[in-house]
Amino acid sequence: MRLFSEKGFHNVSMQEIAAEAEFATGTIYSFFDSKEALYLEIMNEVADNVLSVGQPFLDGQADEREKLAGFIRASVRVFRENSAAIRLFLRANQRPVSQIGTTRFSKTAIKVHDTLQARLRQVYAAGVRKGTFRAFDPRVVALALDAALRAIIFSVAEDTDETALEQKVTDIEELFFRGILHDPWNRAAGSRAAADR
Amino acid sequence: MRLFSEKGFHNVSMQEIAAEAEFATGTIYSFFDSKEALYLEIMNEVADNVLSVGQPFLDGQADEREKLAGFIRASVRVFRENSAAIRLFLRANQRPVSQIGTTRFSKTAIKVHDTLQARLRQVYAAGVRKGTFRAFDPRVVALALDAALRAIIFSVAEDTDETALEQKVTDIEELFFRGILHDPWNRAAGSRAAADR
DNA sequence: TCATATTATGAATCCATATTCATCTCACGC
DNA sequence: GCGTGAGATGAATATGGATTCATAATATGA
């Protein structure tokens, strides 16, 4: 997982994986049928994790605004729990659809991405119907939120300074809610004033 | 350029490139020293294009809000002018720093990315000082805007329906300005009311 | 038109690395 | 202590694809 996330599928050799795992090259093949199978198994596990952490926040019975705020905070938690895995997952999923067939993607990983995007759109659309959110294209809102969170998480993952993550995600949250809420000043989530920095 | 952008560096063979270009394999080597050199030359050219279109908007003497709005609109124009090239450039640059040394990146492409990010931060920070924008972390704002634009451009590039791009980017623009402007209702850019959709 | 120089060709070479498998190790039961 | 087999080993093999280069095609100009 770590090797793939650092170097990418084609730049990691089975010899390298074997050495790192302290097994002989051949031994790896008693666990996995091929390099591809090994990679997909990692992808699937990571994808399942991401879904299991993120989805509950979107599915609960809280109001839409709380759901989105919960999802944003969940992204941070998932990242902290396993940054190498998430880095791998996010990188691989940066271009899911168009790369199908050209790069390696697990069905599970694609499904997870699509599922979360769909839920985000639904939650947002529900909020629009109830008059909580302004009416933008839900696809745009879901994509933009996801992309912005990724970018921030990545930038932090690159730095050594991971403590900055919470602050940055809070900024994203506030920026985002200001953008979509009808009444940004009545906020329970992402509240702390920003002008003091 | 098209092959690389669709399949990625390692999944394109020189034989394939030669066939597509209607040259013999060996002939390619009279133009470029290696596959790597060929790739880097493409990257550099694309990077230069991106910079030459995007930077003027950030450098002019307009106010900060106009600059950012201009940059957002420029992204669309750059994309329309050469969607294959931009797709390649954006994909390769999605993770510049951490992949240095592990994947192929041209110095130019990295510099272009950094330059634009730096200018975005400067413009935004200037707007904050003048009281036009709310005070978030400029790095977060620059990254989020860039990431959101990319995500939308990509999603449109994947669909066949490219006509939707303007509308979606307008949504991003409005979402973004609502997020950062102190007074979102006094807007000259990204104005059209959103509630009518 | 012909000799020569220039350029293009693509089969052959070479190399990196995924995969295999003959061999080795060693835990276990006797 | 010894025979046995499941599991581990890593050198050898197979494969894909980058690169080379002897040959063919084409252009030049006398």
CATH architecture title of chain A: Orthogonal Bundle
Oligomer state equals: homodimer
Largest sheet of chain A: none
SSE pattern of chain A: HHHHHHHHHH
Percent helix range of chain A? over 70%
Strand percent estimate of chain A: under 5%
Largest interface: A-B, 45 and 45 residues
| E-strand count of chain A | 0
Q: Kindly provide the name of the CATH class of chain A.
A: Mainly Alpha
Write down the domain tally of chain A. Answer: 1
- Which residue ranges of chain A are poorly predicted, with pLDDT under 50 across at least 5 consecutive positions? 93-103, 187-197
What is Rg of chain A? Answer: 19 Å
Structural class of chain A: mainly alpha
Q: Which topology of chain A does CATH recognise? A: Tetracycline Repressor, domain 2
Instruction: Give the N-terminus to C-terminus distance of chain A in angstroms.
Output: 38 Å
Query: Mind telling me the CATH superfamily name of chain A?
Result: Tetracycline Repressor, domain 2
Shape of chain A: elongated
The pLDDT mean of chain A sits at: 78
The total of helices of chain A stands at 10
Describe this structure in words.
2 copies of one chain form a homodimer. The first copy, chain A, is mostly helical and 197 residues long. Chain A has a single domain (46-196), classed as Tetracycline Repressor, domain 2 (Orthogonal Bundle), CATH 1.10.357. The first copy, chain A, is 71% helix and 0% strand. Chain A contains 10 helices and no strands. Chain A has helices at residues 2-7, 14-21, 25-31, 35-59, 64-81, 83-92, 96-99, 107-129, 138-158, 164-180. At the A-B interface, helix 7, helix 9 and helix 10 of A face helix 7, helix 9 and helix 10 of B. Chain A binds a DNA duplex (30 and 30 nucleotides) through residues 13-15, 18, 23-27, 29-30, 34-35.
